[in-house]
Amino acid sequence: EQVNELNLLVKSELSSIGNRRRRQKLLLTIMESCQCIWGMISNHMSRNFAYDFLQVAKYLERADMTSRILELTSMLVSDKRSEALGQNEGLFWATLLRVINAQQMYIQSNNSSLKAKKVLAFLIKDEVFPRSLNYSLKAVGHYLSYLPKGNELVAEQIALLESMQTYSNEKHPPENIRPMMDALQVKLTQLSGQIISTWFYPDYSSK
């Protein structure tokens, strides 16, 4: 019911999104509705295969989104025009953390000023923040393991996880994060394709 109501709302408001204020209001409403839907799923949905698929999709999307934000950040930091960012480093990284609702958890975890190396380490390797790459990739493997034939794909997930755990500030300065995120996105796409071919569009011709 909530999904249908949101669908109808978006359709009815499409003609008005040219207005910036109404567009922003609609986006906020969509975000709030999505949070409500996920809350209902978390509290009321049986823990069956359908739930496991939803969780795999959620954490794959989170990992992809976080990697794209970090990729864009790397481009900004490495750009010659970013010299001004050095004068406002704290504001820049605070804005990045707010984009993915991570600022409060970062402060609790680090209890320190906002520095590039610490923010990147938090978003890539943190063990308990749900939007970090490390946490998201672990969650993908966790829910894959509950699915029939899921263990066949866990090896791919483990490889992704290990690639993130090799991150270090010394090997990967902020301006060099982009290639690492590019490689991760390619592997996430491959894993997504394997999930689709395993459960949604299996190839029976080879059997």
TrEMBL record:
This is Alpha-E domain-containing protein. Residues 2-200 form the DUF403 domain. Pfam families: Alpha-E. It comes from the Bacteria. InterPro entries: ATP-dep_Glu-Cys_Ligase-2, DUF403.
